[in-house]
Design a protein that fits this description.
Radius of gyration: 21 Å
Strand content: over 45%
Strand order of the largest sheet: 7-8-9-10-11-12-13-1-2-3-4-5-6-14
Number of domains: 1
Largest sheet: 14 strands, mixed
Structural class: alpha+beta
């Protein structure tokens, strides 16, 4: 009789998750591809961002505007705490610090595709909005469907992505809204399965027809050296007209052009 109870409990659990006892799990790769397609379909994206980082009771604030057009044009304008500008197109990358009256130029056209993408990821990493998209991070990543659950009153697909690096296999677990395909939550795990950091989205809104985004993202890095980052999207514009000239840097008079720092 105990075995029958166990079987019934298992079936009830599957039904509670929205999966029949014989139903196949949804395609994890397909769900993630649909989620990411919302971003790749944008002609342009403008984000005005404020990020507050709290560590040991001290809070630091940053503000910047990020503009992207297509797959090769990007511009970042820091407003606070210091002014700094990053301009990238398919030919060159500029990093300009007005207070130092110096601008560094990198010839992207002379670089192979993989090193070029690695460089751009490194330069733009500081302004990356963690938790905005569920990115597997490469062709070697393995996606696995975990469950369909309720999260914050919404039906969500829980998907796990495993990536192998120098420190071993790491995992990212994400919860995609079943209807809106916005990332509601994600967790970053070490090779032992311990959670290193977690990110929660809130104040979800429709930024463009059918495109739902969070207004606020709260990222918590755990452990003794942990900290909390609250990122607020103060302005979002999708498919706005952005002239190509915006992504071409012209050296101001009196500014010295220097070699880029170590890449």
């Amino acid at each position: 009789m105990s075995g029958r109870r166990t079987t019934l409990a298992t079936v009830a659990g599957c039904l509670a998750l929205g999966l029949g006892a014989e139903a196949a799990a949804p395609d994890a790769a397909g769900l993630v591809a649909r989620h990411l397609a919302r971003f790749s379909a944008m002609a342009s994206l403008t984000l005005r961002v404020e990020r507050q980082t709290t560590r040991k009771g001290n809070t630091a604030t940053e503000r910047w505007t990020l503009r992207q057009k297509g797959t090769s044009l990007a511009r970042v304008d820091y407003q606070f705490p210091v002014r700094r500008h990053i301009v990238a197109n398919d030919r060159e990358l500029w990093e300009y610090l007005p207070t130092a009256r110096k601008a560094a130029r990198t010839d992207l056209a002379a670089m192979a595709p993989e090193p070029r993408q690695a460089l751009l990821r490194r330069v733009l990493a500081r302004v990356a909005v963690e938790g905005l998209r569920f990115d597997p991070g490469g062709p070697d990543a393995k996606l696995r469907y975990v469950a369909r659950v309720r999260l914050g009153g919404r039906e969500a697909h829980c998907i796990e992505c495993r990536r192998r690096g120098k420190a071993g296999a790491r995992a990212v677990r994400g919860w995609l809204d079943a209807e809106r395909l916005v990332l509601l939550r994600c967790e970053f795990l070490d090779p032992r399965g311990q959670i290193l950091a977690e990110c929660e989205a809130s104040r979800v809104f429709e930024a463009a027809p059918g495109l739902w985004l969070p207004r606020r993202l709260t990222l918590r890095h755990l452990g003794t050296r942990g900290f909390t980052q609250v990122t607020t999207l103060q302005r979002v514009a999708v498919d706005a007209e952005l002239p190509d000239a915006l992504f071409t840097f012209r050296v101001p008079e009196g500014v010295e052009v220097v070699a880029p720092s170590s890449q």
